[in-house]
Every structure is written in structure tokens, then in C-alpha cells.
Amino acid sequence: MARVFVITGPSGVGKGTLIRRLRATHPELRLSVSATTRPMREGEEHGRDYWFLDDEEFARRVDDGDFVEHAEYAGRRYGTLREELDRHLGEGAPVVLEIEVQGAAQIRETMPEAVQVFVVPPSFEVLQQRLEGRGTDGADTIARRLEVSKVELESQHEFDHRIVNDDLERSVAELEAIVEAQLPATNGA
């Protein structure tokens, strides 16, 4: 049975960085590309970074049951397309979902066997600095993301695993240990 790994936490906590580092050492892990209604940022590509959908198409696909999970976050919608997840699982590959906390709660209900990891910032101040330092969002968007983060951080104890992302190397090692404990052992001989 292919495993599903849910990596979640507040915006700006470093989920994407941790996942990139994890996949560099575990290329067998597939990343399920999420759908979103937020605008494409410079350097992003449709189908590689996100499936960029307009509000109308996203709503239609929700109504059609095309999402395994979906959530609204800071005024935008995000979700995991069922076909994207099923494709990877059908190939027998373990899958990583980088999703919002609301979506992770939905996955917990529909796929209780999924391994859930909540990434925590070292402090709220560091989270704010990271969001501001990215330079991808305006002050209003950052303020909305920080307000949502306060609520999200309250739910961290509902998750199987917690990683405080205060030291990148240690955080990556913790994530690798969680994943490796759930993957079938490989024999190099």
C-alpha cells in the first residue's frame, strides 16, 4: 500500500523547503500538485507549482466531487484533485501532500491511514519575518495569513507528528525519519 504523507502548517513555515529537501533524498516520493485560485507568482508554472483555476472552475470541480480535500485560505481556495492523487497511488508511489490545515483535517477524516506532519515556526515573530521576507505578498495578504496562522497553530496537537522548523538540517532529518519509518525497507544488496 502506497503511503500518503500530509505536510501542513501555517503559510511561511517552510513546508515547501522541507519537502524539496526530503524529495532530494527520496526521489520515489511523488508530490501531488495542488489546485488554487490565487494568482500565479513570477517563476511559477501551471501544472508544476499549482493547477491555477479561476473561482468558477474551482467551484464547479468542488460540486463535481473532483477534490479529495479543499479549503479557503486568506481569501483564496486550495485543494487536492482526486485524479492527481489517484494517479500517483495507482502507480504504487508514495505521495506527499503539501496542504492547508483545513484540508489536512479533511484528509484525516477520509484517509485516516495518511501520515500527518504539522510544521511549526520557532515563534510567531519568525513566521512574520519569513512571510515578509519572501516578498511575494502585500501587507494586507501577509496580515490575513498571520491571522489565519494563529488559529492554525492552535490545532497542531491534532496531528501525528510535529516538527519545529527552527534549524533546517535538524528539521529535514526529523521529516526524513518520519517518512523512512513508514516506507518499505529497500535492500541495496
Structure description:
The protein has 189 residues and is an alpha/beta fold. It has one domain (2-179): Rossmann fold (3-Layer(aba) Sandwich), CATH 3.40.50.300. The chain is 43% helix and 20% strand. The chain is built from seven helices and nine strands; from the N terminus they run βαβββαββαβαβααβα. The protein has helices at residues 15-25, 55-63, 82-90, 101-110, 124-134, 139-154, 168-182, and strands at 4-8, 30-31, 35-36, 51-52, 67-73, 76-81, 95-98, 115-120, 161-164. The strands form two sheets. It has a five-stranded parallel sheet, sandwiched between helices. It has a four-stranded mixed sheet with strand order 4-3-6-5. Strand 5 (67-73) and strand 6 form a beta hairpin. Helix 1 (15-25) packs across helix 7 and helix 5 (124-134) packs antiparallel against helix 6 (139-154). The relative contact order is 0.22. The model has no long low-confidence stretch (mean pLDDT 90).
Percent in strands:
15-25%
Based on CA inertia axes, which overall geometry fits?
globular
User: How do the SSEs run, as a string of H and E?
Assistant: EHEEEHEEHEHEHHEH
Task: Tally the structural domains.
Answer: 1
Q: Biggest sheet: strands side by side, in what order? A: 2-7-1-8-9
Task: Say which CATH homologous superfamily is assigned.
Answer: P-loop containing nucleotide triphosphate hydrolases
Annotated CATH topology:
Rossmann fold
CATH architecture classification name: 3-Layer(aba) Sandwich
Helical content band = 40-55%
Figure out the total of helices: 7
EC number: 2.7.4.8
Function: Essential for recycling GMP and indirectly, cGMP.
Protein name: Guanylate kinase
Subcellular location: Cytoplasm
